[in-house]
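(Protein data)
===
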Amino acid sequence: MSAIIIKRRPSQRVLVGKVMLGGGAPIVVQSMTNTDTADAEATTQQVFELAKAGSELVRITVNTPEAAAQVARIRSRLDSMGCDVPLVGDFHYNGHRLLTDYPDCAQALAKYRINPGNVGRNRKSGKLLAGHPEDDPFTMMIETAIRYDKPVRIGVNWGSLDQNLVVRMMDENSRLAQPREANEVTRAALIASALESAQRAEQLGLAHNRIVLSCKVSDVQDLIAVYRALTLQCDYALHLGLTEAGMGSKGIVASTAALAVLLQEGIGDTIRISLTPEPGGDRTQEVLVGQEILQTLGMRAFAPMVTACPGCGRTTSSFFQELAQSIQTHLRTQMPLWREQYEGVENMTVAVMGCVVNGPGESKLANIGISLPGSGESPAAPIYIDGEKAMTLRGDDIAGEFTRIVDDYVARKYARRNSDAPKSLRSIPLQSV
């Protein structure tokens, strides 16, 4: 882990189920399912997989009566599987009705996400849904949150921003002696929507420390500008993420570029990486990307880090690449078990180097390192443990021997957890810096 400590922005602490957001608590990685929530079996399975991958909060879509009717059942199934990850309900348009009509759903969720740009509006026309004037949809959702003692994320999105607010602010801007650019006004409208909605929620009785804010856009520079401005105007806990990051490397790079800047500045209390998965792809990738962003910045530790050289003309063999991949897969596979058994194993570093140029030096800096022979070098692989050369491997089973050395190091180096402690305490995988 880096010795540089990032000074976090002061923010309110918000308890979501068993997970603490803000107030200096470790930055939380969360994710969202893409199953039909009405399919309780598929949704339960995907939530379980996301939680197993390390997601500390999982958001599910609650958009229909059929979906709302299954939420309590999903919670119950997860509990029976030993999975206590808090569930966040994602509501748009009709959330006020669903929470009222399905009290079991309202109770089972650990947090509600409200979009002030479309709450209580028709999905197609954008007009307010018919109802009694006193039955304000936003008010109904906040009152439900108060009734069940649930925190709320007021999540404003660029693509569903309240157009009445935008028109009002554009008109005000046009009357200025020096009008601002339209893009700047829209960013200001995002912030205004979030803060005005939070103020309304507090006026209705929701506690200040039961509110999380987000102002999401898809452009990296806009996201950075919005959150920098937002942090100057409030101390609410903040949820970071691009609205739609994209697919594959584009999504990963965009999310990393935006979030790394904000996190480095101490902004953000929870993150979600909105990757578009490949057809049939693994939804858990967004969790791993979020973890790796935080761990690379030195802000949290989730799993041992593997350092591997990129290869060059001195490493014509692909063996070091195969070994690096094998070790990284082994570490990820073993982490659920190691996390249960050993204290601090997530901080371990492993180096797999391909030649003599940087191999010994990088290997000495890691907890365990192997310097494989490059082209024309002696067919031997020295092993370094805690900075000292411990042995040299030769022969056809270098990969197997090195894996066993790593396993043995973990067993010897890290203290065993108290086996009598409750599993919920022993399985906490995280360390804050």
